[in-house]
From TrEMBL:
The keyword Ubl conjugation does not apply. Coiled coil: none annotated. Keywords: Signal. Residues 1-26 form the signal peptide. It comes from the Bacteria. Pfam families: NMT1_2 (PF13379). This is ABC transporter substrate-binding protein.
Length: 343
């Protein structure tokens, strides 16, 4: 996430974000419902990591709440946030750090986190060579590490984990951060780096190609934090509280469904959103995320998770000052959904 939210930069990024999002309008929505309230969601990327969102759409949980969902993929945290700020979308699915970055720049209409979807980092450490015996993080020292974008949550969680194991990313590694997000898997498969930090399903695909091996999880290592959260502007929340509550209800029902369903059942429900991905890969990825507790059981962003997020940001040098949980998190929609929604 770019920390500099200058007025011109916001407008330019917002326009590009809206255009990109419209171009990538998902073909898997619920369709138009007579009398339904339209809600435009901007997701930071299309990812199996967000399985409960796709379940809520495909299983009709939003429709049950009288909501007509329009899903846009607004690639990148900066574009997603600026599209939200400019009114191009109503709700953003993005990392909580973006709301903190906006808060740091000052805003008359703050962005509020209201329903958490994922509660761990979603990346994995992939080695070019298979693991021999028990993994020791010290083996990374002196290696070439293909990392994620500076200032983004994946990179911050990665650096937090490395430092936890006594590794200084800037001194102990040849850290590469000059590869675009979409090209990182290809760069590693082509021979760049000894280790790489990858999301799924790219990590699994690299394994299937025999080009690398998953040896550790940054999600497990960095602990629970509000990694991906639905958020909206305070003005929207004030004007549309019933819509926000219905939205939270639908997501909570999907979270309960995911918690009680098998990876095979979840994969079947979300496959329409991943037409070019083999079902066996989707099943494996869902299982990996489910086994490590990445899917949040409810939407509540608690203070422990919020503080852990800021510890991660602080360790990466990306936090000017700590943000008050009460100012940027509104849990009452998620709390009501948790207490009232049944499987």
């Amino acid at each position: 996430m770019n920390k500099r939210f200058g007025r011109k930069a916001i407008l330019a990024a917002a326009m590009s974000g809206v255009l990109a999002g419209m171009a990538l309008l998902a073909g898997c929505g619920t369709g138009t419902q007579e009398g339904a309230v339209k809600v435009r969601i901007g997701e930071v990327t299309r990812s199996i990591f967000y399985a409960p969102q796709y379940v809520a759409i495909n299983k009709g949980f939003f429709k049950e709440q009288g909501l007509d969902i329009e899903l846009l993929t607004t690639a990148g945290g900066d574009k997603t946030m600026t599209t939200l700020l400019s009114g191009g979308i109503d709700v953003a699915l993005v990392g909580s750090e973006t709301s903190i970055y906006v808060h740091q720049q000052g805003s008359d209409d703050p962005v509020l986190n209201f329903h958490q979807l994922t509660q761990t980092d979603g990346t994995f450490l992939v080695s070019r060579k298979p693991l021999q015996g028990t993994f020791d993080w010290n083996t990374l020292k002196g290696s070439t590490f293909l990392g994620q974008r500076k200032g983004g949550m994946p990179q911050m969680a990665g650096e937090f984990t490395l430092k936890k194991h006594g590794i200084d990313p800037k001194k102990d590694l040849n850290l590469l951060q000059n590869v675009d997000f979409a090209n990182i898997p290809t760069a590693f498969a082509s021979g760049t780096g000894d280790y790489v930090q990858l999301f799924e399903p790219q990590a699994t695909m690299i394994e299937q190609q025999g080009k690398g091996y998953v040896i550790a999880s940054f999600g497990v290592e960095s602990g629970k934090l509000p990694y991906t959260v639905f958020m909206t502007k305070k003005s929207y929340m004030t004007k549309q509280p019933d819509t926000v509550q219905k939205f939270s209800n639908a997501v909570q029902k999907a979270q309960l469904w995911v918690a009680s369903s098998s990876p095979e059942q979840i994969a079947e429900a979300i496959l329409p959103f991943f037409p070019d991905t083999d079902k066996a890969v989707v099943v494996g990825v869902v299982k990996r995320y489910k086994d490590q507790g990445s899917f949040a059981a409810d939407g509540i962003v608690d203070t422990t998770e919020w503080n852990n997020l800021q510890d991660v940001m602080e360790a990466a040098g990306e936090l000017k000052q700590r943000a008050d949980h009460a100012k940027l998190v509104d849990n009452h929609f998620a709390e009501k959904a948790k207490s009232s929604v049944k499987p």
